[in-house]
Amino acid sequence: MAFGKGCHLHLIDGSAFIFRAYHALPPLTRKSDGLPIGAVAGFCNMLWKYIEDAKGSDAPTHAAVIFDKGSHTFRNDMYDKYKANRDEMPQDLRPQMPLTREATRAFNIACEELEGYEADDIIATLARQAREAGGRVTIISSDKDLMQLVGGGVEMFDAMKNRAIGVEEVEAKFGVGPDRVVDVQALAGDSVDNIPGAPGIGVKTAALLINEYGDLETLLARASEIKQPKRRESLVDNADQIRLSKQLVTLDPQTPITFTLDDLEIREPLVETLLDFLNRMEFRTLTRRVAEKFNAEPPPAIEITASTDAATPAQDAPPITPESYVCIRDAKTLEKWLDQARARGWVAVDTETTSLDEMQADLVGVSLCIKAGQAAYIPLGHSMGEDDLFGGTARAEGQMDMDAALALLKPVLEDDSILKIGQNMKYDFKIFARHGIRVAPIDDTMLMSYAMFSGLHNHGMDALSDRYLNHQPIPIKDLIGSGKSQITFDKVAIDTATRYAAEDADITLRLWQQFKPRLHREQVTTVFETLERPMVPVLADMEMAGVKVDAQVLSRMSNAFAQKMAGLEDEIAQIAGTPFNVGSPKQLGEILFEKMGVEGGKKGKTGAYGTGADVLEDVTTLEDVNPQAAKLAARVLDWRQIAKLKSTYTDALQTHVNPETGRVHTSYSIAGANTGRLASTDPNLQNIPVRSEEGRRIREAFVAGPGMKIVSLDYSQIELRILAHVADLPEMKQAFKEGLDIHAMTASEMFDVPLDQMTSDIRRKAKAINFGVIYGISGFGLARNLRIPRAEAQGFIDRYFERFPGIRQYMDDTVAFAKEHKFVQTLFGRKIHTPEITSKGPSAGFAKRAAINAPIQGAAADIIRRAMIRMPAAIAGLPATMLLQVHDELIFEVENGAIDDLIAAARATMVGAAEPVMKLSVPLVVDAGQGASWAEAH
DNA sequence: AACTTCACG
DNA sequence: GACGTACGTGAAGTTC
Q1: How many whole angstroms separate alpha carbon A643 and alpha carbon A583?
Q2: For strand B, is any atom closer than 7 Å to the CB of A605?
Q3: Is the CB of A889 under 7 A from strand B?
Q4: Where does the record place the 5'-3' exonuclease domain (predicted)?
């Protein structure tokens, strides 16, 4: 079809795709030969996503990917410094360039480039031709240099933000229409491309001038009339340079291309060619996806031969074949399998249940694996798929009696000489514990992965299997469905369940065989054995104990909150002049910043006004300017606080009270947070309110049983103490040894104020700085936190570094270490990987601060883990139970008569938790509290 | 499912 | 001249 009216041309900025892919991904290499391949992988994924996304109602009729060719263009002949400040192309990107062209052709998309011209010029030429032919054009790019082309049927599309860029967006960015963009760019220049422009004039000023004088030539002609001396001189003195800049930024719409628009017509991918290319690149996931999409058979995976990578599955491991798994239906067969486990000394174990909540889940079956490929499933609680006449479910045929099977399993699961291997063993541990079996000893592939790879990827079975076994397990959704029609596992047919469940045990064993030797190579065996694995029984016991929560107290609070909210809603509707959903930030933003005319509303990346608490607090100060809005903001803040307390706490907590135990049982994820911290879920009991008076009252509902009290012990300033130790800060260490107020001491050092003349405001500032340092301080962040000018904040930081030179050293050393090794380490050897540390752009800043914070937050996490692991022995014999951990705090339930003993024993354990492996140069201090509720104990 | 907001250390 | 930043989490509600 000839290009013409009604046609729609997509032009993809290929170089932008490549660089985005390169910087977004870690430096991946092809497994078989180590060829750098990350950018190609990202590029292919982006192209694939583009193709999928472009299939909508506004689908293109023609499309092409346009690349830059070489680095020398006609602009270099005009100006030899053009793009001269660009870094050389990274070494590992260079060999990927031709592959991106090959990839484009493999997807059967037109692929064009032209010697001596930039991709932007070709795009300009094609856009012009398409417009002249009466068609429409969409440029897939967010490059500002292309914005001059927008308008009259040409628009841009930012594929990352999923956002169209039309005339309005261009005007928002440059302050002028697309036809004057080059004038503004000529004046403002561009440090990235080394366009000189007019010194001292940026986009804002340039737009102002162009809007006033109409265009660049008029402006330059009348430059002498400009009042501001700086601007006038800059324009008068640099007129030639500005004209040159304009030539440099203006795209050439007449490049001598040798193809026509008709050549760019959309073509279906040639499936075989495409799959062959993807397979040669060894992109497993994408190959599979593409094959699935076209219902094609994926080509046989490339054989990996010359690899020393431990990720290569053992040569002798048979392929994973779910059809070969055994279903154990009688005692004799089970005994045979258990004998195998006894003979080998290990067995991989996995349980299937009816729920993810271990406290409510019923056991449905157990799977075992004793050797890669040799796995079995023991169905124990399967029912018929359909309900019977009486609304109950009949037990499925061919299953062992549950008690009989567990009686055979128990001696093996509790046998000291047989290692039980699991993936996320805490889950199975709890299931078995509810049947009177304490599984030990254990290994856990999830925790092994966490010890070795924290920060690199998550540690779920699907991710590990895909990554380390090159195998995608049967998705659970295939068995039980999803959403409303989801069924419980006991309803799954036994033969289907056998394939799924035994596969999990098989995968777990294979992962374990691969990980076990690698723990040593990665030098994290001690971390795994002293900080990860022992947490499993400790946390399982805490979770099973649960904490008593008085639902009546919560219910009363919920009712009170509901009344208060209703009152506030009425008041808010009245101030706004119209009722609206107060819980909708979008509606609130529109009312505040449009209807009520509050100025300075800032839109986020989705185009919605920000209405966070800090923004609303600023609005409340506008009493004189806009009293109605100030009042509205204040009421909304009140409403928000109560709504949060009600929905997240007083309402939700009630639903988490277990009907059998009358207590709330959280679940801790051991491998959730990168730094070694735990995370609490379902419900999260690590973020129960405390900072506000109203919120703190929720803790009154966390109570002790009759004759008992809640006891709380928390580390005082543990992260600052660790910082003082690792960064070697003599003044701070001394202050901790003397038991001084550390924030007051910091303030005194920094602001030269004697301790006896300290004010709370100065101390507050020092406290914010102390925290800031732990987080990888920046002037901007501190300024925002303290609500002071940025320059002042920067002054504080400079002074802090001057007074505590060890800090700067620590930060520099940590970042340098991270850059060299791609991980950082805690005092106890825990590794936290920081793959982003070498990336460019904003993510580099994030990675840096995370790298600075991780060893400190991580060491604190290590220390409380050590205390928790020792705690059961330390308090054995006392009528006390450890219930909760909140990062630096442990909460116990203790009989009244044993409170002092408990505090003494637990405090000693916590204070000495770093020893004997680590002798800190600062003391650890533990504060204790007690009471009828958590509110009183804290 | 993504985004925004807000609770904690 | 402009941009975009404090570290680590989980849950609820709205919007698409």
Answers
A1: 8
A2: yes
A3: yes
A4: 4-267
